[in-house]
Every structure is written in C-alpha cells, then in structure tokens.
C-alpha cells in the first residue's frame, strides 16, 4: 500500500486536467467527441508501437490474457458511453447534480470488492466512503446554485445522469476486477492501457459512423474542428499524461492495492483526489468564488480519503469470503 495509495492519489489528481480540457475545448470551437476520437487514435498508436518494439515478451496463458484484456476493452467502451451520457445530461440540466450523480458510481467497485472478492470492510473505510458520497452531494448542491436557472427543455437530465451512473458503475468494476487475480496482474500495464483505449476508440468510432449515416449535418459539425490547432494540443497533452500515468501508476497501483486486500478503495481514492484537486484548481487558478457547499465538500473529502487509506487490520467490521464460483 505504500506504493498503491500515493500512486492512485496522483492519478486522481491528474484527472483534473480532463475537466480543464473538457471545459475549455467547446470555448475554442472543438467538439468533445472529436477530441475523444483523436485521443483514441493517438493512444492506440503509442500503445501498439511500445508493445511491438519495446515490450519484452512474457509467457501468459492466452485464456487469461483474453479474459483480462477483454475486461479492459469493455471498460473502455463503458467509459466512453458514460461520458457521452454525462455530457448530454449536463446540456439539459444542472452540471453539478449530473456530475455528482455520475461520480457516486465509486460505491460500485467498493461494494463489489467487499461482497464478491472478500475485501475487508473496516470502520475507517466505511466512514471514508460515506464521507466521500456526502461530499459529492454537497458539491452537486453548490453547483446547482450557479445553474438553477438553466433551461432543462429537450429531455430529462435525470435520465441521462442515472444512465451515466450505470455505465460508470460497470466501467469501474470491469477496470478493477482483473487486479484481484494474480494471473491477470502479470499482464503488462501497456497492454491494459491499449485494451482500454481500443474500447474507447471503438465506442467513438461507432458513434461517429452512426452520426455520419443518420445525421450527416451533425457529423459535419463534429469534424469541422479537425484543422483547429487546439485539437492537437489538447490531444497530445491529455494522452501524454494519461498514458504515462496508466503505464507507471494506475494499473501497478491497482494491482498493489488488490494484493494488499484494498482493491475496493481504488476508485474511491482516485475520485476523492480528483474532487479535491479540481476544486482547489477552480478556487486558486480559475479564481472561482468558493461557496459554503464547496468548502463543506472539501472538508468532507479530506477525512474521507484518510479513512480509505487505513490498513485493513485496523478496526475490522466485516469480511465476507469469496463466493464459491470465484474460489
């Protein structure tokens, strides 16, 4: 855990850059879907080159390889789908409420780790997850104060918010499950990132093809930013740190946490770190005025993260055995 906790906290903090880019790209005439599509291409190219020319061969059972990489591929598709549903919900309703509902999906891998993989449920960890969910609620309420006058015509923002929540619940479980198995932990982080990128690229590609044949005018609108220099600046910037952290911190960190009986707290740690980092960025860099709800959310996040970092043998509350079909 001495490596896993700092690694995942750093990964979560780095996610703030995604929020910055996704918030600024539309102001520069870029469609987020085009940015994701180009990002998928770059990630696939980089991962393929590294895997073919710089990754030493490793003997791993092909069934294990197919199962593990298939799980990450599904996680990539679900991640893309969840972000698209989140974006649609934010167009129709209050951004903070949609964001809070989606990020509450962090409870899914936590519960799956306890109920399915025998991860110990301790009092500090239970308190930590409760505090993080409470922080998300306060964060959403703070955002609602700024967006309460936004029009919500055109559909139900709650439908898309909970659709995003569902996608991300499954995505986080698909992304964390392989780390619980020692055989899958032998798969290179480069190949895992490549499988995840393949899933995201497949989702983006299918969406763009659908738009091209069913709604050509929307397709033209999406691709009109291909010659915008910011498309390439944001694509390279986002993918550079994304691949760097995935290869060196994300997957090795999740493996280390799962091996230390703490795999259930991986995504809660990263999401909590992201909340704190982005909130501090908004306050001190963007100079946004912090509301009482935002300050309360930050105050809840910090002890919540501390609770999740407690070792499993401190104040154990419950530990369920592996289900028979997983043994």
Distance from first to last alpha carbon: 24 Å
The shape, in one word, is globular
The beta-strand count equals 2
Q: Which spans have pLDDT < 50 for at least 5 consecutive residues?
A: 146-153, 321-327
The total number of structural domains is 1
Fraction of residues in β-strands: under 5%
Mean pLDDT: 84
Question: Which oligomerization state do the chains in this entry correspond to?
Answer: single chain
Calculate Rg over CA atoms: 20 Å
Q: What profile does the largest beta sheet have?
A: 2 strands, antiparallel
Order of helices and strands: HHHHHHEHHHHHHHE
Count up the helices.
13
Main-sheet strand order equals 1-2
Structural class: mainly alpha
Helix percentage: over 70%
Blueprint (SSEs and pairs):
Layout (H helix, E strand, L loop, with lengths): L3 H11 L1 H9 L7 H22 L8 H31 L2 H9 L3 H10 L4 E2 H25 L9 H20 L12 H26 L1 H8 L5 H31 L6 H19 L7 H17 L7 E3 L9
Antiparallel strand pairs: 1-2
């Amino acid at each position: 855990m001495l490596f896993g906790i700092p690694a995942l906290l750093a990964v979560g903090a780095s996610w703030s850059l995604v929020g910055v880019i996704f918030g600024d790209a539309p102001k520069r005439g870029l469609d987020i879907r085009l940015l994701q599509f180009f990002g998928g291409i770059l990630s696939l190219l980089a991962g393929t080159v590294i895997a073919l020319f710089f990754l030493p061969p490793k003997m791993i059972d092909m069934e294990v390889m197919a199962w593990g990489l298939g799980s990450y591929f599904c996680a990539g598709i679900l991640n893309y789908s969840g972000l698209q549903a989140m974006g649609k919900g934010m167009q129709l309703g209050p951004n903070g409420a949609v964001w809070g509902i989606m990020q509450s999906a962090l409870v899914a891998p936590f519960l799956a780790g306890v109920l399915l993989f025998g991860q110990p449920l301790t009092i500090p960890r239970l308190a930590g997850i409760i505090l993080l969910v409470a922080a998300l609620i306060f964060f959403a309420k703070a955002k609602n104060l700024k967006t309460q006058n936004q029009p919500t015509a055109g559909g139900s923002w709650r439908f898309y918010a909970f659709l995003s929540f569902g996608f991300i619940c499954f995505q986080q479980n698909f992304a964390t499950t392989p780390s619980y198995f020692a055989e899958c932990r032998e798969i290179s982080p480069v190949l895992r990132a490549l499988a995840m990128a393949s899933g995201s690229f497949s989702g983006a590609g299918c969406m763009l093809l659908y738009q091209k044949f069913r709604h050509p005018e929307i397709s033209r609108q999406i691709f009109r930013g291909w010659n915008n220099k910011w498309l390439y600046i944001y694509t390279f910037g986002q993918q550079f740190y994304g691949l760097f952290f995935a290869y060196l911190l994300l997957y090795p960190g999740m493996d280390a946490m799962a091996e230390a009986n703490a795999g259930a707290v991986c995504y809660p740690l990263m999401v909590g770190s992201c909340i704190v980092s982005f909130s501090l960025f908004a306050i001190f860099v963007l100079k946004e005025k912090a509301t009482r709800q935002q300050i309360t959310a930050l105050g809840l996040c910090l002890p919540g993260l501390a609770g999740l970092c407690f070792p499993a043998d401190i104040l154990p509350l419950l530990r369920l055995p592996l289900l028979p079909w997983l043994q």
